[in-house]
Write a structure and sequence with these properties.
By secondary structure, the protein is mainly α. Helices cover 64% and strands 0% of the residues. The chain is globular. Bound molecules: fe (ii) ion (2 copies).
């Protein structure tokens, strides 16, 4: 008989969104997609391709281990979140697999060797205890929150002029990661709640995924004969350094014993995207993001809300960014994140 552990040790807290919505990734990648989908910055393209490569191995693991843990949980709200989380992750890896097949067919068959190593590594992970697997999931998802904030807030720098298909896919994935950012943490806290395994999971989950992503990136750069060129290596240091610099505060915060992913508010762009998608007629293909637009707004025609333009809300001013840096530093030191605001914002927007 399954052991129920949550009734004695765990109290469910509301998440930042009203509902985790399971959506279809209703767009097609062109079969002749150029794997270097940002021609002016191949390192960015290969860095994100490397991240895509790991997802069909990582995300089935996240989904399966979370579903396995359900029999140990008796908080109905959390069980519903865990099912929705697993359904979202399953749709993510199916779409990443489609993209990865095109990357391999269109010039980078060498990536298959990296995939073989990932398959072996994730097989070994499934042999670990369920607590270790859930701690890995919670740690990885906490790091992902920093990653998705970086992608969304820096989208105009990272994706300007890039393939609208690839960019739209990565940003939609980022929206859903933000939407379900509390679930892996909650599942671990309900299952175990012990600090040290979770802290180890933060390091294990984060560096395991990043190492395989970088392996994919360097495999593609080697194929392009770029690994020995100082200019390309400088670009690697700059882009990977920027990514690590943005993720680091989230990773450090995740290591605090009292950490809870609820302390990070969701970017306005994410809220706009969720609201825009909710108004989309069922069964239509997803509109693509205009990567030539200097603001790269959400790909939905939204009316102004509360007298403010939705596009205007998405554009973060320099003052806001400086304030965020100060709050990030304070939050690492344990002060509350005052960006946590109106938890009713998303549901209200969804029914608007
Ligand atoms: Fe995902
Ligand atoms: Fe996720």
């Amino acid at each position: 008989m399954a052991l129920l552990v949550s009734a004695r040790t765990y109290n469910y807290q509301p998440k930042l969104v009203d509902k985790i919505v399971v959506r279809e990734f209703a767009f097609e990648f062109p079969q002749d997609l150029d794997p270097v989908w940002r021609r002016d910055n191949p390192v960015i393209a290969h860095l994100f391709n490397g991240l895509s490569l790991v997802k069909p191995y990582l995300e089935p693991h996240l989904a399966k281990s979370t579903l396995r843990a359900i029999s140990h949980i008796d908080a109905p709200e959390l069980i519903e979140d865990m099912r929705d989380f697993s359904a979202q992750e399953s749709r993510h890896f199916e779409c990443h697999r489609r993209l990865n097949e095109i990357l391999k067919s269109n010039g980078y068959p060498e990536l298959a060797r990296v995939e073989e190593r990932m398959a072996r590594s994730y097989k070994r992970l499934t042999k670990k205890s369920l607590r270790t697997q859930l701690a890995y999931n919670a740690g990885f998802e906490c790091m992902t929150n920093g990653f998705t904030n970086w992608m969304i807030n820096k989208r105009t720098k990272l994706f300007a002029g890039g393939s609208p298909h690839v960019v739209s896919f990565f940003l939609m994935h980022a929206v859903e990661e933000t939407e379900h950012k509390t679930v892996a943490y909650d599942a671990y806290m309900a299952f175990s709640g012990k600090y040290w395994p979770r802290a180890i999971g933060v390091i294990h989950g984060s560096f395991h995924v990043l190492a395989f992503s970088l392996m994919g990136m360097f495999t593609a750069l080697k194929k392009d004969r770029q690994t020995g060129k100082p200019r390309s290596m400088f670009s690697v240091v700059r882009e990977v350094g920027s990514m690590v610099g943005h993720i680091a505060p989230y990773l450090l915060r995740a290591l605090l014993p009292w950490h809870n992913p609820r302390c990070d508010d969701d970017p306005q762009w994410v809220k706009d995207w969720i609201r825009g998608h909710a108004a989309l007629p069922k069964g239509v293909m997803l509109p693509l993001i205009d990567t030539a637009d200097p603001a790269m707004p959400v790909p939905f025609a939204l009316d102004p809300v509360d007298g403010r333009s939705v596009v205007g809300q998405s554009d973060r001013r320099k003052g806001d960014r400086r304030r965020d840096v100060v709050i990030d530093v304070a939050a690492v030191l344990g002060f509350p994140d005052r960006r946590v605001g109106d938890r009713r914002a998303t549901p209200e927007l969804a029914i608007a």
